[in-house]
Design goal:
The chain is of the alpha+beta class. The protein contains 16 helices and 13 strands. Helices cover 41% and strands 13% of the residues. The protein is globular. The relative contact order is 0.07.
Length: 474
């Protein structure tokens, strides 16, 4: 619809507390030395600096504040976090735009330095790149009018607008409206603006979203997990219809499960049946991985398996589980049992699986590492590739290189980064720690997987000091 620049948003929220000029300038109204203004307050050069806001907020004793001011304190810190995200984006944007030597490894470097996932680091990098071309959004984030999540929503939803003037108009409209909306509301609002600007983009958006379809496992406490699927609407409805039918068919006179419980059980039974039979619903064999039939893996201390203690076990792809559940799964023939030393949690032995007796080199390495060895990466080792820590040399005997001590599990992405020599890895055969050196010269050490992995297992060390006759890096 040509010429349309905005639509009236729904669910818009505005604060109604009065804000006096003195409250903005001094962060306290004239009539009350304690009461705070409505946040976010204008920042420099028109109002208070972010340092003044932080100083005032940290001086407050929350136990002495009334209900209104407690709300404003929470809102004030939200403004501070938004400003911090803006300055973080500036630093990351400089990393992306300047030749720092990191190249395409910026996201991996961020993931290690922030001790976060590659996906989360990618969000930070994408935000920085977007803000570099959207001054309106950067200004809104610096002012605390929008938080980082809302900025991400606007950047993501406007990617399909290739016309710069149309995109700038939608971004400006969304930046102005976003302060009064939640992030989901803002996403729908911007999506409508985009379709009004460019109706044909709806097809492009659908095709782009379809490429992002996936299934994800999310950890939840108490030995539970959430398995979610992002699917085209027709496929999602088809799956739910089948689950409903299976749940209805499982109902009996003595069955006291709720409909939700029967749906969950029916869903799980489909996949457990595939693993148990080794065949797909169509009757075909389930593909092998690393030369062996697909199986599940539980790690448990030898003393725990014998019932001498109740140390938690570890479920590959999930994390810690109670001792009783680890013992139960370790006795099931459909699971691979990994025994560990209860004194230090280190790998001891890979148990036999019904499918393939004995333990070969590949199985031993994958069992030892549990996940990809790159710092912070949680890709289960069963879905990883085997990598020679010390690169394979054709001029040397293979038997001296393809060994337990010189092999590690790496996901495809981090394997490629190492192969391209963007990152360098070493492994201490005594401690089992994997040490990675980034293109920036920073080293990150990851200790072997144990039950009680502490934050200190990921150590962030600066690069070595430059010689005295060399100028400092910054």
């Amino acid at each position: 619809m040509a010429g349309v620049t905005s639509v009236k948003p729904g669910g818009y929220v505005t604060a109604t507390r009065p804000r006096t000029p003195a409250a903005v300038a001094a962060l306290t109204p004239e009539d009350d030395g304690r009461e705070l203004p409505t946040f976010p307050v204008p920042t420099a050069p028109l109002g208070a600096s972010i340092a003044e806001i932080v100083g005032r907020l940290t001086e407050l004793e929350v136990a002495d504040l009334g209900a209104f001011d407690l709300v404003e304190v929470a809102a004030g810190w939200a403004q501070v976090m938004a400003v911090a995200a803006a300055f973080q984006a500036r630093a990351v944007g400089e990393m992306l735009n300047r030749d720092t030597g990191m190249g395409e490894a910026v996201v991996d470097e961020l993931a290690c330095a922030l001790v976060t996932t590659g996906r989360a680091a990618g969000v930070v990098a994408s935000r920085a790149a977007g803000l570099a071309t959207s001054p309106v959004l950067e200004e809104a984030l610096l002012a605390g009018a929008l938080d980082a999540r809302k900025v991400d929503v606007i950047l993501d939803e406007t990617l399909v607008l290739h016309d710069r003037s149309s995109r700038d108009a939608v971004v400006a409209d969304a930046a102005a409206a976003g302060a009064g909306m939640t992030a989901p509301q803002l996403a729908r609002y911007v999506s409508k603006l985009v379709l009004m600007r460019d109706p044909s983009s709806g097809k492009e958006r659908a095709e782009r979203a379809r490429k992002d379809r996936d299934v994800r496992l999310r950890w939840i406490n108490d030995s539970m997990a959430s398995l979610s699927a992002f699917l085209p609407a027709a496929d999602a409805v088809a799956a739910m219809t089948a689950i409903d039918a299976l749940a209805a068919g499982a109902k009996s006179a003595t069955d006291d499960r709720t409909i939700d419980q029967r749906r969950a059980d029916a869903f799980a039974d489909v996949f457990k049946g595939i693993l148990d039979s080794g065949r797909t619903p169509g009757g075909e064999l389930v593909p092998t991985r690393h030369g062996k039939r697909t199986s599940l893996q539980v790690t448990v201390g030898a003393s725990t398996l014998l019932g001498l203690d109740d140390l938690p076990g570890d479920l590959a792809g999930y994390g810690p589980i109670p001792a009783y559940l680890a013992r139960e799964l370790a006795q099931d023939a459909t699971w691979t049992r990994i025994l560990t030393d209860p004194a230090n949690g280190a790998f001891v032995e890979r148990g036999r699986v019904t499918y393939r007796p004995g333990a070969d080199l590949t199985g031993t390495v994958l069992a030892r590492h549990v996940t990809c060895t790159f710092p912070g990466c949680q890709q289960p080792s069963a879905r990883c590739e085997l990598d020679h820590v010390e690169p394979f040399d054709d001029t040397r005997p293979a038997a001296t290189q393809t060994t337990v001590d010189n092999l590690q599990a790496l996901c495809k992405h981090h394997h490629q980064q190492k192969t391209r020599k963007r990152w360098h890895a070493t492994r201490d055969p005594v401690t089992g720690s994997c040490v990675w050196t980034s293109p920036a010269g920073i080293t990150y050490s990851r200790s072997p997987m144990v039950f009680d992995l502490a934050p200190s297992a990921l150590v962030h060390r600066p690069p070595p000091l430059a010689p005295e006759d060399d100028p400092p890096p910054f």
